[in-house]
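WARN no homologs supplied; continuing
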Amino acid sequence: MAFRSDYIWFNGEFVPWDEAKVHVGVHALHYGTSVFEGIRAYKTVKGTAVFCLAQHVRRLFNSAKVLRMPIPYTEEQIAQAILDTVAKNRHEACYIRPLVFRGMERLGVDGRACPVEVVIMTWEWGAYLGPEALEQGVDAGVSSWRRMAPGTLAANCKIGGQYVNSQFVTMEAKDRGFAEGIALDINGYVSEGSGENIFLVYNSTIQTPSLAASILEGITRQCVITLARDMGYTVEEAMIPRERLYVADEAFFTGTAAEITPIRSIDGIPVGSGRRGPITAKLQERFFAITSGKEEDRWGWLTYVPKT
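OK structure emitted
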């Protein structure tokens, strides 16, 4: 699918895609002062629905608060603008990118004198790691790049500048022939992918790195934890040593873009049987049953886009 749609919501107004522009002097371009979210809208049997809208908007505002960048709209206004943008672009399913950034007023490391601007982009986007990845899985490699140490950057926030670290991880992975990289934290424990959380299945227990491992507190991650526990599985949030990656029975990435993507090998070592495992498959089935509207949305994860 092409990376475009008809309109972008830009500071409260709809602007044609090609006319949504900023000045080269914006603070965010020079210093990475932006926060963002990745959200999906799914085509369901009841119409188009945005997944975990309130949770994503809350995290957007939390990230902006940490960056000391007050958003000039309420959470309710941003949530409504997201729904309006999906409707305006007539999407049945799409990816949604709210972006908040410091604009142009003056340059200098402290950008708080610059205006805060907000855009919402939507476009049609399929499986992040490839259409076959959801079933066949992907090959991943442990990166030489570590996630940020506590007290250096805000790992739990989606701040634009921090994603240079993620770019190092994913570029190295692709140069080595892997679909994705797995970063360790500063102490050598498993952290996360370049843009995804990671889960392992080991001795019938589902494990995922704790927040102390410099991970983003992923919204899809929390949904998978909720689903897994509801299905009777034990889920542990723990500090996971690197070698556990190589002896896990199953492994998978989670994220808005990645959804639930199996990992079939790590550093060339097959994970389990080298294909999607049974627990991963069951979690995928439940997840997609809810996002398609075929299963009851017991946790209120879907917000339906009003029909125009």
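Residues 72 and 116 are 7 Å apart (CA to CA).
OK
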